[in-house]
Amino acid sequence: MSQRKENRAKAMKEARRSQYFAKLNDVPTSPRKMRLVADMIRGMEAYKALSVLRYSKKEASIRLEGLLRSAIANWEKKNDKTADSGELYISSIYVDEARTLKRLRPAPQGRGYRIRKRSNHVTIFVDSINNANQN
After folding, report:
1. Residue 95's domain spans which residues?
2. Closest C-alpha among 43, 32, 36, 90 to residue 58
3. Which of 5, 66, 85, 111 sits between 20 and 30 A of 129, alpha carbons compared?
């Protein structure tokens, strides 16, 4: 690896140490469906978002609820204290497309229709409201 790339990688790694996040890879649901649920909780206070996800009818909300709990636990681990109910909020959440499994379904007259089974990667960042006011 060249020196420039190595320095950039070290800088990015150091910047990530001050952020609190959780990542979920290869979720077997389409990114479009996951983004619908992610848009519901973007920018919300963390515990309010947990209750919204708990009572949502979408299947993707179950996975996002577990991911949000993991991000909160990561914040608590790095700060050595427990999160209060109004202290944390979701600073950013994004859904990226992952690999697509291509399958064939039998169709009339000897044809085959292509089925695309999509998956996604979800990353969620939480931060305390106090840190947001300081920046």
Report:
1. 21-105+114-134
2. 36
3. 66
Is the Cβ–Cβ distance between 84 and 65 less than 8 Å?
A: no
Rounded to a whole number, what is the largest CA-CA distance in the chain? 66
Tell me the per-residue pLDDT of 21-48, one tens digit each, with 9 for 90 and over. Answer: 999 999 999 999 999 999 999 999 999 9
CA 105 from centre of chain: 31
Rounded CA gap, 130 and 43, in Å? 15
DSSP for residue 48: H
Residue 3 CA to residue 9 CA, distance in Å, equals 10
Residue 75 belongs to domain with CATH number: 3.90.470.10
In a domain, 94, yes or no: yes
Give the model confidence (pLDDT) of 51-110 as tens digits. Answer: 999 999 999 999 999 999 999 999 999 888 888 877 899 999 999 999 999 999 999 999
Could you give the angle at the alpha carbon of 97 between the alpha carbons of 69 and 19, nearest 5°?
Answer: 40
